Structures are given as structure tokens and as C-alpha cells.
Amino acid sequence: MKNKSDAVEFESPFVDGLRDIFENKIVFNRVLGLKITSLRPEEVAGRIEMKNELVGHYTHNRLHGGVISATLDALGGLAVMAAIGARHMDEPPSQRLQRFGKLGTIDLRIDYLRPAIGEYFEMKASVMRLGSRVASTRMEFYGADGKLMSAGSGAYIVS
């Protein structure tokens, strides 16, 4: 059975606006170098590259667990933004982009499965449930070789 969001295709102004918020206006995401690689209502994806100048976040070419957690948290939030955007397609893109001001993490769980060693990392996130007040997400963190390195779940306040 198809979800209602499967038929939704975001307009360029919404995608560009959300990309600007996520990659540029959220300073921590900019410091991490977090980039959106896919933005669909049912799943979002991102990527970070290993940065040698952020010595405090990286140890011996291993990505620190705090960076992994923050990255997965950010991607979970992005998935919620996409789901909210898909839910309100009757509104113009500029109005939908205003809906994210009160979004915040209320619970986060990360399972670290193996050391995050590599030149870059890719993440995926999807919303399991979008309620009127709380959204639940699943997130995955992959190495350049495609191996799952960490997995997480999160709950976000949306109202």
C-alpha cells in the first residue's frame, strides 16, 4: 500500500530553502560539513567528509561518537522537516519553511556498531510516525564501503 507522501514531489523553492536552513543557517551542521544528498518525503540522506582541521572531533582518523550522534540527530530532524513539508503541500513553500521553528529533539538513542573510520560517511533517516505533537524517526550511519556503522532512533517535538 502506498503512503500519501509517496506521490509528493517537493518544489525547488522548498528544497532550496530547506537546504539553506539545514546546511547554512544551522551553524553546527555547517561546522560538521553536513550536506543533504537526497530530500524526499519518505526518506532523507546526507553526507559528511572527514575533516582534519576539526582535530577535537576526530581521533586517529576515527569519527568521534559525539559527531555521529549529532549527525544522526540532525538527519532525524531533517526527516521530520521533510515529512511536515509533505503533510502541508497545500501551503506555499515559504509558509511550510516557517513550520520548523519549534522542532526539537526530546529523545535520542544511538547504537554504535563499529568504529567510524573512513574518508566520508553517509546517513539516511526516515519518519516512522508523524503525530500532531511528536514524530518518531529511524536513522542509519554508513561508511564509505556501505557498511552500517551506527543506527539510531529519535523522538522530536513538532508543535
From TrEMBL:
Keywords: Hydrolase. SUPFAM superfamilies: Thioesterase/thiol ester dehydrase-isomerase (SSF54637). It catalyses: a medium-chain fatty acyl-CoA + H2O = a medium-chain fatty acid + CoA + H(+); a long-chain fatty acyl-CoA + H2O = a long-chain fatty acid + CoA + H(+); a fatty acyl-CoA + H2O = a fatty acid + CoA + H(+). GO terms for molecular function: fatty acyl-CoA hydrolase activity. Its EC number is 3.1.2.20. Residues 61-149 form the Thioesterase domain. It is an enzyme of class 3 (hydrolase). Belongs to the YigI thioesterase family. This is Medium/long-chain acyl-CoA thioesterase YigI. It comes from Caenimonas koreensis DSM 17982.
